[in-house]
Amino acid sequence: MAEAKPSRTLRTLAWTAGTAAAVVAAGVAAERLAVRRLRARPDPEADEPLGMLPPEDLGPVRSFDGAELRVRAAGPPDAPALVFLHGITLDLTTWYYQWRTFSDRYRCILYDQRAHGGSSRPPSGDYTLTAMGHDLRAVLDVAVPEGPAVVIGHSLGGMAILAFADRYPEEIGSRVAGVVLADTAASDVLREVFGGLGATVGRGLRRLGTRYRSRIDAAERLQQAGRRFGAELSFLVARATNFGPDASPSHIEHVTRISTAAPAEVWVHTLQDILDMDLRHVLERITVPTLVVVGDRDLVTPKNSAQALRSALPNGRAVVITRAGHVSMMEQHERFNEVLEGFLAEVLPPGKRRRRRKASTRS
């Protein structure tokens, strides 16, 4: 009888381990099945070269602290300018449908935010929104030295525009003739996403960010493990957080591929700055016509965020894109472009040409 108890214990441990392994295996199988089903959907966007770059290379453009920004352009050099800023962990290719549509009559300028895409990590280690506001100024100085321009920002890009307006209020109404804020916010991102739990979630994320901010090597190892073993999970997370119900598998794949390639510093430093962001005071200074666009299925910066922007802007208007998530300019690009085209016709008539002069800040 004395030997029966250890035997039962071993059997219990073995049963528990076997059950856990079965649960994990079932979860992995379910994850893979879900991804296969999503990828098997009819995909009208499958043949689009989403990674195509605009044909003209204007970079690298050197920013205030030596960060080198990849800047591309398309369209008539003397046409009114559209400057596109992408979202966090993404790159300029998320504006594919916009530059391809509008470059026949506008000068389309697209660039990668610092440490994103083809832009360098900042030598100063500055990944803040304030630094990104300075970056926008550097790009304007090279690509649109005299204006007029409409600046168009998605998510992080919209926040960078607000940081730019905070630092350079004289640009609004002079060189910058209009603003588009797509799927973005000026503050309280976590409260909009998590409601009353926002403060609790924020404290947890800040503690995590503080831990990894001084241990980027640990964050990189964690990220590399995710790339090796979590490809399907990344696809499902991108689908759930960025898209609506009719998302193209090609769009999800493209966003997943870009996002998982983003440096750990972006996830740690820039995300931390967004959590602490409060740029509401800037909105009253943006007196030029401003278009706020949001997807009705956006879970990251939902309609409440768009309404808060619209209410605080002196000359704002808002449009909700139906059946679109957080990346509305890709997912529902035809509707997005229709809305943008109407706004541009009001703010930047194509017949209005701009003067060009040689800029001196390109490296």
Brief characterization of the structure:
With 363 residues, the protein is an alpha/beta fold.
Number of beta-strand segments: 10
Tell me the number of structural domains: 1
> What would CATH call the homologous superfamily?
Alpha/Beta hydrolase fold, catalytic domain
Q: Examine the secondary-structure arrangement and name the CATH architecture.
A: 3-Layer(aba) Sandwich
How would you spell out the order of helices and strands? HEEEEEHEHEHEHHHHHHEHEHH
End-to-end gap: 83 Å
**Helix- and strand-based class?**
alpha/beta
- CATH topology name, in short, is Rossmann fold
List the main descriptive attributes of the protein structure presented here.
single chain, about 375 residues, alpha/beta, Rossmann fold, 8-stranded mixed sheet, two-stranded antiparallel sheet, 13 helices, globular, disordered C terminus
Task: Describe this protein's structure.
By secondary structure, the protein is an alpha/beta fold. It has a single domain (56-347), classed as Alpha/Beta hydrolase fold, catalytic domain (Rossmann fold), CATH 3.40.50. 47% of the residues lie in helices and 12% in strands. The chain is built from 13 helices and ten strands. The chain has an eight-stranded mixed β-sheet, with helices on both faces. Strand 9 (290-295), helix 11 and strand 10 (316-321) form a beta-alpha-beta unit.
List the helices and strands and how they pair.
Layout: H1 4-39, E1 56-57, E2 61-62, E3 68-69, E4 71-74, E5 81-85, H2 96-102, E6 107-111, H3 129-143, E7 149-154, H4 156-167, E8 176-182, H5 189-194, H6 198-213, H7 216-229, H8 231-242, H9 249-261, H10 264-275, E9 290-295, H11 303-312, E10 316-321, H12 328-331, H13 333-347
Helix pairs in contact: 1-8, 2-13, 3-4, 6-10, 8-9
